[in-house]
Design a protein that fits this description.
heterodimer, A: about 550 residues, B: about 170 residues, mainly alpha
C-alpha cells in the first residue's frame, strides 16, 4: 500500500528548517496553457447572469463590480446557510494530508496548491477570517492570523481561487481517501458559483450553457442539423450492414425516450458510439417491438450548468422531464455520458422531480425492474444492455471486435457518482474476447480522471490537461506494454474526446472507443448482409485474413 | 578503468543522486511526495523519473547513438514539457550530473564525462522541442479533428482545400 510510510520516509518528513515561507506568501501566477479563456459576454447575458463584459484573466483589472468583496462575502454566507455539507466541510478538515497525493492535477503538475487539502484551504482561509469566532479573537494578537490560518479577501486571493478552482475537475477521487468524507468537489462547486456572481466563468462552460439554454444542446446545433447528422449515420450503417436503422423523433406514446450527450452526435469518436445506439434500437424494434424515440428538443444529456450553479443546472436539466412528459413515454434511457449521470443520479429527482408521471423503469423484454432508478425514472444504457445480454436477448458476434485488445477507463461520475462499475465491463467482455483491467489503484472507485472534465476540455489549457492526464496515461501505458492493449473503452462523451488527445501525447498506439461502438459492431441485425467493415469503415478482422 | 566502467561501478550512487537532484527541482512540499518510494501508479512522476534515470545511466554504460539517447530520456522530458517549467528549467536536471561527476572522476576523466553530460543535455533539449511541437499541434488540430471532421463526413460543412485555395489565387 502506498499509504504505509516506511520509517526512513517518516524521518525524512521531519523538517528542521525554517521553511521557504507559507503557501499564503506564494503569489499566484496565471500561466498560459493552464487556464481557460474568459466567458464571452453574450453567453453570460443570454443566461441573465451578472457582470457580463469582455475581460482577460491576464489583465490586472478584472473589471469587477465596486462591491465585489461584499458580493463574495454574501455569496459565501448564503451558501453556508443553504448547504450543510459546505458548512461542515469548511469546519472539519484536520489537514491530515490523506488527500494530498490523490489528485491527478497535483500528481501531474506537481503544484502544491493542487493538493486537494490546499486547494480547499484557499477558500477556508477566507471562511475562517470572515465567519469564525476563533479567527476573529486570534486576529487581535500578534501572529494570530497565521495561527488560525485566516486571511482577508483580496484581488490576489480571488485570482488564486479562480486559477486553482478551474484546475479541479470535480472528479472526487480525493474524497474516497478522506477519513472525514470531505468532498472537495463540492467546495469547487461553491467557488465556481461565487465566480458566477461576479461574471468570472470560463468560456468553455459559459457558451455551451448558453447554447444549451437557447438551442437545446451544448454545440448550439439546431434540430434540422441534429437530424441531418443522424441521417448520415443511418446511411453509413446501411452501407456497412445493409439494414436501415432510421430512428424516430418526438414520437408521442413511445415506450422509451432516449437522451444522450450531443458529443455522441457531433464529435468523433463518439459518433461511432451513436451508431451503436441506432443499431441496438433497430435490433430491439425488429426482435421485440421496443419503441424508442429520440428528441431534437431534449438533444443534450450533458449539463454544463452543473459547472456554473445549481440554478443553471436545474434550468438545463428540466427539459428532460418536460420532453418525457410531453411525449408520454414510460421512462427515460440515457446514453454514455459522465457528469450527465451525476446530475441525474444525485440532483434531478429533487431538483426537477419527482417525475411521478413516469413509470418505474422496467425492461419490457426481460422483465427486470431497475430499482436503482425507481425515483429518477432514468436508466443508464450500459445497465440496460447488460441486462439484455444477461438474459440472452442479444445475438453478438465477438469475432468482429477481435482486432481490439480492450481496457476500460471508469469515468469519474458514473463510477464514483453512481457506482456503475461492472455493467460496462460485462458489456465489453460480451462483445470482445480480449479485456485487461488497468492496475486496481487506478480503476473503479479509485479511477483517475481524464484531466479534462468539469468544463476544462478546452484547447487553450492543453498543458494542464496533459499534465492532469498523466496518472491515467501511466496506467494505460502499463497495460499497453504488458498485454498489448490497443483500445481504451469508456462511457463518457468528454472522455471519448479528451482521452483521444491524451493517447496521442502519452500512449500513441491506443485508440478510444465507446462501449456501444463495440455493441454496434458485434450485434447481428436481422436481415443484415455479411459485414466486411466495422463502423469506422476499417476491414473486419476476419475479412482482413481472407 | 574506462569511463563506462566507472559509471557502471557507481551506477546506484549516480542514479540515487541524480534522482534526488531532479526531484528537488519541484517545490519542497511536492518533492517530499514525489521522492517517496511508492507504488508506480500512485506516484507517476516520481516513478517515471526514477525509471528513466536508471535507463539513461544504463545506456551510458553501453554503446549508444544520439537517437537511442533521445528515446531513452523521452519519458522524463515529456512530463516536464507540460509542467510549469521554463525550457531551461525543464532540461536543467541533466546538468546535476556534472556535480555528481566531480566526486567520481579524476581530472583526466572529468572533461570526458562533462562532454557526455552535454550530449545528454542536447538530447533532452531536442526531445523537449518535439514534445512542445506535439502539444501545439494537438492544440491546433484537436477540435477540428473531433467536431469538424464529423461535420465534413456528413457533408454539413465544406471547406476549401489547399488545391482550391491555390487555384483561386491563380484566377
Amino acid at each position: 500500500m502506498s499509504d504505509e510510510i516506511k520509517p526512513d520516509e517518516l524521518l525524512d518528513k521531519i523538517d528542521y528548517s525554517t521553511g521557504g515561507g507559507s503557501w499564503m506568501d506564494t503569489p499566484v501566477q496565471i500561466r498560459p496553457g493552464m487556464y481557460c479563456y474568459a466567458s464571452n459576454p453574450k453567453s453570460v447575458e443570454t443566461l441573465g447572469l451578472p457582470n457580463a463584459r469582455a475581460w482577460n484573466p491576464l489583465d490586472d483589472d478584472w473589471q469587477l463590480p465596486d462591491n465585489w468583496q461584499e458580493i463574495i462575502h454574501q455569496g459565501l454566507k448564503e451558501r453556508l446557510d443553504r448547504f450543510r455539507t459546505f458548512k461542515v466541510f469548511m469546519d472539519i478538515c484536520v489537514r491530515c494530508g490523506a488527500c494530498a497525493d490523490k489528485c491527478h492535477f497535483f500528481l501531474g503538475t506537481g503544484d502544491p496548491k493542487n493538493m486537494p487539502v490546499l486547494r480547499a484551504e484557499l477558500l477556508r482561509s477566507v471562511y475562517r477570517n470572515d465567519f469564525t469566532t476563533a479567527a476573529k479573537i486570534l486576529s487581535k494578537i500578534p501572529g494570530g492570523k497565521k495561527l488560525s490560518g485566516s486571511r482577508p479577501m483580496t484581488l490576489e486571493v480571488l485570482k488564486e481561487w479562480w486559477y486553482y478552482f478551474f484546475q479541479c475537475t470535480e472528479c472526487r477521487r480525493c474524497s474516497v481517501f478522506c477519513p472525514y468524507g470531505i468532498d472537495t468537489a463540492e467546495i469547487t462547486i461553491m467557488a465556481r458559483e461565487i465566480f458566477n456572481l461576479l461574471g468570472l466563468n470560463i468560456d468553455w462552460i459559459a457558451t455551451p450553457v448558453s447554447n444549451c439554454y437557447q438551442t437545446g444542446n451544448h454545440l448550439g446545433i439546431q434540430p434540422h442539423a441534429f437530424k441531418d447528422m443522424l441521417d448520415f449515420f443511418v446511411e453509413d450503417i446501411e452501407e456497412i450492414t445493409g439494414v436501415n436503422c432510421a430512428p424516430q423523433y418526438q414520437k408521442k406514446g413511445a415506450d422509451i425516450l432516449f437522451i444522450t450527450p450531443s458529443g455522441d452526435v457531433f464529435a468523433d469518436p463518439g459518433t461511432y458510439t451513436c451508431q451503436g445506439y441506432l443499431i441496438l434500437f433497430k435490433y430491439l424494434k425488429e426482435k421485440y417491438g421496443l419503441d424508442v424515440t429520440w428528441s431534437t428538443y431534449a438533444s443534450e444529456g450533458g449539463n454544463f450548468g452543473f459547472f456554473t450553479s445549481h440554478e443553471t443546472m436545474k434550468r438545463l436539466n428540466a427539459k428532460m422531464y418536460a420532453e418525457a412528459k410531453r411525449l408520454g413515454v414510460k421512462w427515460i434511457l440515457g446514453g454514455e455520458c459522465g457528469h450527465m449521470w451525476r446530475v441525474i443520479h444525485q440532483y434531478m429527482d429533487t431538483m426537477n422531480g419527482p417525475a411521478d408521471f413516469l413509470e418505474v423503469p422496467k425492461n419490457p423484454i426481460t422483465g427486470t425492474v431497475f430499482e436503482n432508478a425507481k425515483s429518477t425514472k432514468m436508466v443508464h444504457i450500459t445497465e440496460f444492455t447488460a441486462d439484455l445480454i444477461k438474459h440472452g436477448k442479444l445475438e453478438l458476434d465477438k469475432s468482429r471486435n477481435a482486432n481490439r485488445v480492450m481496457t476500460f477507463h471508469d469515468s469519474c461520475n458514473p463510477s464514483r457518482g453512481m457506482g456503475l462499475l461492472d455493467e460496462p465491463r460485462y458489456v465489453i467482455q460480451n462483445c470482445c474476447d480480449n479485456f485487461f483491467d488497468m492496475p486496481e489503484n487506478t480503476i473503479r472507485e479509485q479511477t483517475f480522471c481524464c484531466g479534462s472534465g468539469a468544463g476544462l476540455n478546452a484547447g487553450e489549457n492543453i498543458e494542464l490537461r496533459m499534465a492532469g492526464a498523466l496518472p491515467r496515461a501511466t496506467a494505460l501505458k502499463y497495460v499497453h506494454e504488458k498485454f498489448g492493449v490497443n483500445t481504451l473503452g469508456t462511457i463518457c462523451a468528454i472522455d471519448r474526446a479528451a482521452l483521444t488527445t491524451l493517447c496521442e501525447y502519452w500512449v500513441p498506439d491506443v485508440e478510444v472507443a465507446g462501449v456501444h461502438e463495440l455493441v454496434g459492431n458485434a450485434l447481428i441485425l436481422p436481415g443484415e448482409k455479411e459485414r466486411e467493415e466495422d463502423l469506422r469503415f476499417e476491414p473486419l478482422p476476419d475479412s482482413e485474413e481472407e | 578503468m574506462d569511463l563506462k566502467q566507472i559509471v557502471k561501478k557507481n551506477k546506484k550512487k549516480i542514479v540515487d543522486q541524480w534522482f534526488k537532484a531532479t526531484i528537488e527541482t519541484y517545490p519542497a512540499n511536492t518533492a517530499k511526495i514525489l521522492g517517496k518510494d511508492s507504488n508506480k501508479f500512485d506516484n507517476p512522476v516520481g516513478s517515471t523519473t526514477r525509471e528513466t534515470i536508471e535507463d539513461v545511466v544504463d545506456l551510458l554504460c553501453r554503446e549508444f547513438t544520439a537517437e537511442s539517447l533521445e528515446t531513452t530520456i523521452d519519458p522524463i522530458v515529456r512530463i516536464r514539457a507540460v509542467q510549469a517549467f521554463t525550457a531551461a528549467e525543464a532540461v536543467s536536471f541533466v546538468f546535476a550530473l556534472k556535480r555528481i561527476g566531480e566526486e567520481l572522476f579524476d581530472a583526466d576523466r572529468i572533461r570526458e564525462f562533462d562532454r557526455l553530460v552535454d550530449s545528454i543535455a542536447l538530447a533532452a533539449f531536442n526531445r523537449y522541442s518535439k514534445c512542445k511541437e506535439e502539444i501545439y499541434l494537438l492544440k491546433a488540430t484537436e477540435s477540428k479533428r473531433r467536431i469538424h471532421r464529423a461535420f465534413e463526413r456528413a457533408g454539413l460543412v465544406a471547406e476549401l482545400n489547399e488545391e482550391d485555395l491555390l487555384g483561386s489565387k491563380k484566377s
